[in-house]
Amino acid sequence: MLKNREEIKKVLDNGGVIAYVTDTVWGLGCLPESEKGVKKIYEIKHREAQKPLILMSNEAYNLLEYVRQPLSKTASLLIKKYFPGALTLVVEKSSKTPDFVTSGMNTVGIRVPDNEVFKEICEIATGHVLATTSANLSHQPSAKTYEQALENMKDLADLVIPDYGYFAKGLESTVAGVFGDEIKIFRQGAIDLDL
User: Fold this and answer.
1) Residue pLDDT, tens place only, 156-166
2) What is residue 190's DSSP assignment?
3) Architecture of domain 5-187
């Protein structure tokens, strides 16, 4: 499906930033180990330094080394039930997750979007994981279409990847923290949690 696989990989490997469709809204991301890429995302968005990025992948398995093991039973159940989908799960991070991704916090948000274009981008990306946020300037509405993402990220992102007809639904993910077996909703989004 993706026409420019080599270019996507090259941009990411060189600390670049790409914009792409997900199942919720458009995202902006780089490789999680790339401090250069993460800094660029904060600069592009004029994002407050204390607001962390999240990690997304095409498979939950790829995200596990970034979070502290073992996961609680509640976190494991939520992953099983809602991944892939519009749930961002905030859990304790492992030492593999750089502090510059999480704004120095000891937790990290993880998500597996249910979108074919995004999945293919992750297959291409070294390590199959992206540090990511929404493709808009801070305090502006999220991009819901390719046209909006292009407009928001023109001359800012290194690459804006077409959606190839796999559209974003336009509602942000639900963000839920799991601490032990307690669930805390940080943002109510597309999913109503139900265990």
Assistant:
1) 999 999 999 99
2) S
3) Alpha-Beta Complex (3.90)
